[in-house]
Structure formats: C-alpha cells, structure tokens
C-alpha cells in the first residue's frame, strides 16, 4: 500500500504500480485540477485503475479546505501563495484538504511507503500523520524544499523536532551536504 502525495500527472504512481503488483494499491493525491485530469487519463490509458486511485485533495496537518495555487501541469503547484507571485498565470482554487491520519483511518489502510512531494509542505503532511507513522512505521521518501520553509512557518528546529517526535531519522538520497539547507530527496526510516 503506497501513498503518492503530490503525484502531479502520475508518472511515479505508474512506475510504482508495476512494483506493487496486482494485489497492491496506490493512492495518488493531486489537488490541481488540470494535473488531476491528466492523472486520471494516464491511469486509464495504462490500464491501472485496479491499482491506482486518484484522490482529489491536498494533504496537510489539518483537514478542511484551502486555496491551492496551480498553473497547468506545473510540478511546483502548491498551497504556497508565493507560487502565484512567481507564476503570474497561476490561479488559486479552493480544494479539500485532509491529513494522512484521517485518510488512512477512513479507509482502514496501512501504507508501507509514503512518497511526499508537495513543494515545501512535506513536514505539514508528516505532522498530520503522527498516529499512523508511530503505529505502523512505513518508509517515507520526501522531496525537501528548505528554501521556502521560513515563508510557510517551518524552521530547521521544527523539522528536526518533528522527526525526533515521530521516531524517524533522515538519510539523503542525493549528495546534499546539509539536508536541512539544500533542495533534494531524503528517506525517512523509523528508528528501531
């Protein structure tokens, strides 16, 4: 069971669908309307509807509704208003927001892998997954965007405290010299 959070048009979900096999399941989260349409089309064209479910909502630390800033299929579509300032054609759309804990509880699912790429809000998503992470300890792959953390209320201290509270440790997937200062991908493993 995989949660692909911030899937855009589904390329990684499609690759993972071949890994999970016929009995596996991927929940592909994408709130941007155009990307969601493309995701659903890709799922259908690749015959993966039995393995991938497109979920039309954003993930964060609280459930409700939020403004999501999107421009076509841009991989930087985000909850951050700074995107709309950088990309003049971006528009704000209201989208549903849920937490990983709420989603997993509502579906009675236990993921073994989380892939999170939500343009800086990855640690908000992890904070909304506290119960599931502590209880089930899945592996987590995260794309880091520390260059916008300050703007969205994150700091290195908050990030490291969140990981310590969750019982996870980070390791780089790329050659970052400083995980908390450089863009890149990391793996979070539960501390035994």
Can you give a write-up of this model?
There is one protein chain. The chain is an alpha/beta fold. The chain has a single domain, classed as Vaccinia Virus protein VP39 (Rossmann fold). It contains seven helices and ten strands. The strands form two sheets. The protein has a seven-stranded mixed beta sheet with strand order 3-2-1-7-8-10-9. The chain has a three-stranded mixed beta sheet with strand order 4-6-5. Strand 2, helix 2 and strand 3 form a beta-alpha-beta unit. The longest helix is centred in the N-terminal third of the chain and has 13 residues. It is globular and about 45 Å long. The mean pLDDT is 93.
Radius of gyration using CA atoms only:
16 Å
**Major sheet, described briefly?**
7 strands, mixed
**Share of helical residues:** 25-40%
- Count of structural domains: 1
What percent of residues are in strands? 25-35%
Q: Major sheet: order of its strands?
A: 3-2-1-7-8-10-9
Q: At the third CATH level, what is the topology name? A: Rossmann fold
Q: What is the CATH class designation? A: Alpha Beta
Average pLDDT figure: 93
Number of distinct beta strands: 10
C-alpha end-to-end distance: 21 Å
Describe the structure using short key phrases.
192 residues, alpha/beta, seven-stranded mixed sheet, three-stranded mixed sheet, Rossmann fold, 7 helices, 31% helix, 27% strand, single chain
């Amino acid at each position: 069971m995989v949660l692909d959070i911030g899937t855009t048009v589904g390329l990684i979900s499609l690759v993972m669908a071949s890994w999970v096999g016929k009995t596996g399941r991927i929940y592909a989260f994408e709130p941007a309307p155009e990307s969601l349409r493309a995701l659903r089309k890709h799922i259908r064209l690749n015959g993966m509807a039995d393995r991938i479910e497109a979920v039309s909502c954003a993930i964060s630390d609280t459930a409700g509704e939020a403004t999501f800033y999107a421009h076509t299929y841009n991989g930087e579509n985000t909850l951050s208003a700074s995107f709309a300032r950088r990309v003049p054609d971006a528009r704000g759309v209201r989208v549903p927001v849920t937490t990983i804990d709420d989603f997993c509880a509502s579906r009675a699912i236990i993921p073994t892998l989380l892939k999170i790429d939500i343009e800086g809000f990855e640690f908000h998503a992890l904070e909304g997954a506290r119960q599931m992470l502590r209880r089930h300890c899945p592996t987590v792959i995260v794309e880091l965007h520390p260059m916008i953390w300050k703007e969205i209320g994150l700091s290195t201290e908050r990030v490291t405290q969140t990981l310590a509270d969750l019982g996870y440790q980070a390791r780089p997937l790329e050659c970052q010299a400083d995980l908390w200062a450089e863009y890149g991908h990391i793996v979070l493993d539960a501390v035994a």
